[in-house]
Structures are given as structure tokens and as C-alpha cells.
Write a structure and sequence with these properties.
The complex is a heterodimer.
Chain A: E1 5-7, E2 10-13, E3 19-24, E4 31-37, E5 43-50, E6 53-56, E7 65-68, E8 75-79, E9 88-95, E10 105-106, E11 110-114
Parallel strand pairs in A: 2-11
Antiparallel strand pairs in A: 1-3, 3-8, 4-5, 4-9, 5-6, 7-8, 9-10, 9-11
Chain B: E1 4-5, E2 10-14, E3 19-21, E4 24-25, E5 32-39, E6 46-52, E7 59-61, E8 64-69, E9 74-79, E10 88-96, E11 104-106, E12 110-115
Parallel strand pairs in B: 2-12
Antiparallel strand pairs in B: 1-4, 3-9, 5-6, 5-10, 7-8, 8-9, 10-11, 10-12
Classes of the chains: A mainly beta, B mainly beta.
Chain lengths: 115, 116
């Protein structure tokens, strides 16, 4: 009865490298959300995906960030050419249906450190 | 404008004291959801409660209770007889139903420290 899985839990990158964060939702969940938590702040919405579709990416930075949720496999949040300001905890959540009807289950997060 | 305000940045209480964490929200939706999450030092997010805007009944779950007041746009959280294990950051969040967006707006959190 696995919950939301995220890997890696900790990721260290040097400026200019790429970061790939993976999220496996709860089995059977087709709605995935990514959030970013900067140090000492609350979580901020980035993107909402359903299988093979981006539904709402209003919280995604316009450049360097992208997300996908393929038909098979985990959801991926990709950050190209990372900068120090990208250092944060990135949380993935999933829900069975529209999250207005059911709560989002959160993963343990990936802590990205950019050197 | 901040949609969810948690004015208390940090609170410290002595074990067994009661403590109330405040949450004030702002929305123009008539249908919305309010949440509380706990983030212990290990970092994960633990879901505590979800409440929809049409249900103003207060809820109690063990030592936890929630007071939803639509008139003041508040959704406060009280821990009775606090324990050291309650030490964590607590986030209040709002989910609106407009426009098909399904994201949560989080407050900045209240860090609770329970002193033994």
C-alpha cells in the first residue's frame, strides 16, 4: 500500500547542471501536482498534471523548468541549468480524482541543493 | 494578496499546555476547501484535515480540534494537552474551485515547539 514515492530524496547539483526529480503517485492516482518549498516558507504550487497532459502550469517559472507525466512511468520535474535560487524542497502530491473532492497525498519531498 | 495568512511564525508552549494555531484565508469563491498539514522535522507533509466551505461544524479528533468560522474567514487549529511529538511546522492551506485549477495555496506555516 505504497504512498507517493519521490526520488531522489536529496540531490546535489552544481550551477549549470540539470536536475531530474521523479514522482511515482499512489497506485491508481492519475492526478499529480508539484510544489516548491523555499527555506522557511510554505509550499507554492508549480504544476498540475494528469496522464500525458499538463492541466495547469501557472506556478512554473517560464524558463528552465518543465514537467511531464507520461502514460507509463513516474512524473518528472526537470530543471535545466540550475542556479543557487533553485535550492529548495520539491514536493509531489497525487490524488485519485479532482482534488476538490479528495485530499492530495504528499510524497516525502526531494531536497535540491545547488552548489 | 496573501490567500492564506498564518500570523504566528513561531509558538513555544510547555508540554500539556493547550495551543491554538491561527489561520485566516481570503477567497471570492463560494465553494472552497481548507486544509491543515503537519511537517515534522523529518520534512514530510502529513495531512490532518480537509473541510469544505459548506460545513461549518467544528471537528474534534483526539487532542486536535478545528474551529471554522466563515464570518471571520478563519480556520483555527487547537492542540489540547500538547506533547513533544507535536513539535512541527503546521501549514494551513486553501483550495479554490474556480477555473479548473486544482492547487493548494499554503500559508507560510507556524513552527510549534513543545518544551518538555
Amino acid at each position: 500500500n505504497a504512498g507517493v514515492m519521490q526520488n531522489p530524496r536529496h540531490l546535489v547539483r552544481r550551477r549549470g547542471q540539470e536536475a531530474r526529480l521523479r514522482c511515482s503517485p499512489v497506485k491508481g492516482h492519475s492526478h499529480v501536482y508539484w510544489y516548491r518549498q523555499l527555506p522557511e516558507e510554505g509550499l507554492k504550487f508549480m504544476v498540475y498534471l494528469q496522464k500525458e497532459n499538463i492541466i495547469d502550469e501557472s506556478g512554473m517559472p517560464k524558463e528552465r523548468f518543465s514537467a511531464e507525466f507520461p502514460k507509463e512511468g513516474p512524473s518528472i520535474l526537470r530543471i535545466q541549468q540550475v542556479v543557487r535560487g533553485d535550492s529548495a524542497a520539491y514536493f509531489c502530491a497525487s490524488s485519485l480524482r479532482d482534488s476538490r473532492l479528495t485530499e492530495q497525498f504528499f510524497g516525502p519531498g526531494t531536497r535540491l541543493t545547488v552548489l | 494578496a496573501q490567500k492564506v495568512t498564518q500570523a504566528q511564525t513561531e509558538i513555544s508552549v510547555v508540554e500539556k499546555e493547550d495551543v491554538t494555531l491561527d489561520c485566516v484565508y481570503e477567497t471570492r469563491d463560494t465553494t472552497y476547501y481548507l486544509f491543515w498539514y503537519k511537517q515534522p522535522p523529518s520534512g514530510e507533509l502529513v495531512f490532518l484535515i480537509r473541510r469544505n466551505s459548506f460545513d461549518e461544524q467544528n471537528e474534534i479528533s483526539g487532542r486536535y480540534s478545528w474551529n471554522f468560522q466563515k464570518s471571520t474567514s478563519s480556520f483555527n487549529f487547537t492542540i489540547t494537552a500538547s506533547q513533544v511529538v507535536d513539535s512541527a511546522v503546521y501549514f494551513c492551506a486553501l483550495s479554490e474551485s474556480k477555473g479548473g485549477a486544482n492547487n493548494l495555496f499554503f500559508g507560510t506555516g507556524t513552527r510549534l515547539t513543545v518544551i518538555p
